[in-house]
Write a structure and sequence with these properties.
160 residues; mainly alpha; Ribosomal Protein L24e, Chain: T; two-stranded antiparallel sheet; 6 helices; 4 strands; 9% strand; globular
Length: 160
């Protein structure tokens, strides 16, 4: 079953699409919700796989060509034409009542009902069934324990 995005999720996505460098505090002031709400919603959107990364938007008018036509700022060899083509795919229309398809973190299959959620530290993992959730926990037990210990130590350090 796809996850429904509510008005707050949509507002956060729209705000980040305007400027991906905005702080959680700036977004919270803009959409009139608390900063911790923005942070937790953002983390949830990352955890369910909707937000894959925050990428820079390059102002192509400021780019000059190198000595070779295919050279772009001496970097990875992308041409201006390739960057313009990539830019077309950066903009996605975000609307209310969007649904997000989810895949099981263990078997990779679709999650067709309410996901089974495993929460540890500041992470959430989503599964199609209890069996996949339990097998994931068993398989990654050591790593999960390590992450939780690091998180607790970090939280302890932040309090003092």
């Amino acid at each position: 079953m796809p996850v429904d995005l509510d008005n707050t999720d949509v507002a956060i996505l729209k705000s980040l699409m305007e400027d991906g460098r905005k702080s959680f505090r700036a977004i919270s002031r803009e959409i009139k919700v608390s900063t911790p709400t923005v942070k937790s919603r953002y983390e949830r959107l990352v955890n369910i796989g909707l937000i894959k990364s925050v990428k820079p938007e390059i102002d192509l008018s400021k780019v000059t060509r190198g000595k070779k036509k295919s050279q772009f700022l001496g970097g990875g060899g992308e041409t201006i034409k390739q960057l313009e083509e990539q830019k077309k795919h950066f903009h996605v229309k975000v609307v209310e009542n969007m649904k997000v398809k989810m895949q099981c973190e263990y078997c990779g299959g679709p999650i067709n009902s309410k996901p089974k959620v495993l929460e540890f530290a500041n992470f959430q993992r989503f599964f199609c069934c209890t069996g996949c959730k339990n097998q994931y926990k068993e398989k990654h037990e050591g790593r999960i324990r390590s992450i939780v210990e690091q998180y607790k130590a970090m939280q302890k350090g932040a309090k003092y």
